[in-house]
Amino acid sequence: MERKHISTVARQFKRTFSQQALNALGKSIRFCMREREITPYRLALGLIEVFARTRVETIADAHRAFNALCNTTVQYKPFHNQLVKATFPAFMRGLCEQLMARLTSEVLRFAPQSPFAQFTHITIHDGTSFAVKSTLKKTFPGRFTKISPAAVELHVTMELLSEGLERVTLTPDKESEVHNVPALNTMRGGLFLGDRMFFIKAYLAQILAHGGHFIVKAKGIINPIIRAAYTLEGGELKRFGNQPLKSLKSKVSKYKALDLEVAWEKELEARLIVTWDAKNKRPRYLLTSLPRADFTLEQVCDAYRLRWQVELMFKEWKSYTQSARL
What we know:
This protein is an alpha+beta fold. The protein has 10 helices and 10 strands.
């Protein structure tokens, strides 16, 4: 990282966590109207440091650590009263939103000659699960009731070029990711990368209608009509034209990769990249709106691998919380 960039991030970090900024945030959402022993500034920084350094299982653990770190003798009840305020979650959310907005900058840039340089943003969306106390199972029911009866799902929209978070939504683990898809009005001029959960033809058609593009992993049960088929080298396979995809599935293993133009009547027309998974002995599918004339088969596959950045972020979050993904 360049020295100038480090200095900019450091200034933004200090500004966000300054005493003046945090106390002003607390007042703006009516979390703490009068500054006493437990100010928004001391509470926010104290809790962040407590959870970063020690294992906290009860409020009493946080209370003792807070007093030690802040060199205070605050009693348990007033400390507890701050945490149970209805505005406390709003205060912490506001702090996170400020961090996400101020601590982002361009970390990835495509070369001018790259076809991907045309995109103003590349959006990745995914979710990750965290187990919570089983007593919360009525509010946050988990998918795996025997292992984790209570669990939450973090639905995250990440912008790849800045590695910034555009949206984070917390829901019960049972709630599907498709209920938290990125807004269509954010797609113009951008590229969306999604897993099989987002293989929703109507949603993908709307991304195109809003001036965006997509690469998503497609489900193995798909069976569109093949309009044209090409090998990795670019040779056309005319015998597969106007045939359903299932007529080709048994022959995929004979080719290194296939580049297909496919259509679902009155629903969606797109490009389907087919590669062979030798380990599991089955084809893999990537559906994209990127045109063959501008983006090679290899470039589409390489671009989809960039989705791994959000998985790396989830892995880092898990390491901080000492939680295993469900």
